[in-house]
Amino acid sequence: MHELTLAAGILEIVQHNVRPADAARVRAVRVRVGELAGVVPESLAFCFEAIVADTPYASAVLEVDRVPAEAACSECGCVTGPSGARCVCPACGAIGMRLRHGEELQVVDVELDDAMEKAS
Questions:
Q1: Which CATH number goes with the domain that contains 56?
Q2: Closest CA to 94 of 102, 84, 86
Q3: Per residue in 79-96, is it b (16+ CB within 10 Å) or e — as a string?
Q4: What is the number of structural domains in the chain?
Q5: Full residue range of the structural domain in which residue 16 is found
Q6: How many Å is the Cα radius of gyration of the chain?
Q7: Is residue 49, in this structure, part of any structural domain at all?
């Protein structure tokens, strides 16, 4: 299951960008996953939950924004969802639709809890 490796990579990105002292403040990690990325979002979320368990980042929840596939015609600019193996523009009949979205796998942001601890 490559989602486990991807979840570990997402945690590494969070660790690189959030100081260890702030780890418990991580509420959510948002990722964009394209429908053609070859990732099962539910499996990715499950693996992320398993990866962060028993770490300082255990409060983090993975939120997945799904990105639908989208192609554009290089001739007329028509934007549509890809239609399988066909690369023919439905508007003008040109061959060579260009994929614009659908292969993304990006960490978009990390949400921290706003509550600041008071010094005692």
A1: 3.30.2320.50
A2: 86
A3: eeebeeeeeebeeeeeee
A4: 1
A5: 2-68+101-112
A6: 19
A7: yes
Give the pair of three-digit tokens for residue 47.
Answer: 């693996």
Q: Give pLDDT, residue 87.
A: 76
Scanning the chain, the segments in alpha helix (DSSP H) are 2-17, 41-52
Answer whether residue 45 is part of any domain.
yes
Can you give the pLDDT at residue 88? 85
Q: Which H/E stretch holds residue 39?
A: none
In a domain, 10, yes or no: yes
Q: Which of 41-55, 63-77, 84-98 is predicted with the least confidence, judged by mean pLDDT?
A: 84-98
Q: What is the DSSP letter of 85?
A: T
Which phi and psi (to 5°) does residue 71 adopt? -125, 155
Please list the residues that pair with 107 across neighbouring strands. 31
